[in-house]
Amino acid sequence: MAFQKANANVRPNFISVSAYDGMHLIYQHSRRPKEKTDGPALVEAMKGIAWESPRGPMSIDPKTRDVVQDIYIRRVEKVDGALYSVEFVTFKAVNDPTKVANK
To answer: Is residue 20 within 8 Å of 53, Cβ to Cβ?
Structure first.
């Protein structure tokens, strides 16, 4: 993997994937040169956007501005001599469960 080569053979983790997603959103907005770039305009432009993240399909709920993503249930398995989280169940397009429960 390119990430591992660039980072002393460290595999990507949730921090690097979150950074990727944030930069992806900023980059997508920057490709629209006539758009405002202040904070509120950027947040408004991100409502409803969808993209393919390293963690799977992602979107921003236009009503709540929360991330909507697949949730993966995993178990740790040894693959080629290294430990990996291997998915065995996927819940598709999950909104923030605490907000859903508190409605």
So the answer is: yes
